Amino acid sequence: MFFVPALPSYGHLYGLNFQEWTNNENNILIQFDTDPHTVTAGQTSEMLFSVQDLQTQQHFNNFTETITITNSDSSSNSGIIHKFESKKISDGDFSQEYTFPNGGTYHILVRIDTAKFISIASFSIFVSSPTFQILNLIYVLLPAMIFIGIIIGVGIIIMRYIYKK
What is the percent of the chain with per-residue pLDDT over 70, rounded to a whole number? Predict the structure, then answer.
């Protein structure tokens, strides 16, 4: 058996973490992933996209993409955190670097404009924050600390019982 790591690549996205969005009417498949897979607030990450023909799995060529990042916790009415300038894409794959300001759930909207149609896909990602990471560590370590506490407590009770005699 061979182990093949899921690394980001320009081509179709592979691995277990990417998301897909399909539009059967326009025959389009959009794949989305991030690098690193666990996005952390305050650290630059890369959003990876692959736009393909749904039936042939070949890349769509010559379209314009626009990426918008939203968050329902945003103070603005629209929830828009950041909107990138539109770019012309010639080979179906593109990426965008971004540093998410805070932890939480974000929605990545990507608009694809071709000569024949306009299509909008939506993806969700969870951005980890240092506070969340500390709480997560506490929740992971809590059972171990309780178990060690019980062992120490039982050990003290046994020692007191033995030395009482």
Answer: 80
Total structural domains within the chain: 2
Measured CA to CA, the distance from residue 109 to residue 160 in angstroms comes to: 65
The full length of the chain comes to 165
What is the distance between the alpha carbons of residues 89 and 95, in angstroms, rounded to a whole number?
A: 10
Q: Domain of 124?
A: 19-128
Nearest to 106 by CA among 125, 84, 91, 88: 125
Specify whether 109 is located in the same domain as 28. Answer: yes
For residue range 74-115, what is the model confidence (pLDDT) as tens digits? 555 568 889 999 999 998 899 999 999 888 899 999 999 999
147: in domain: yes
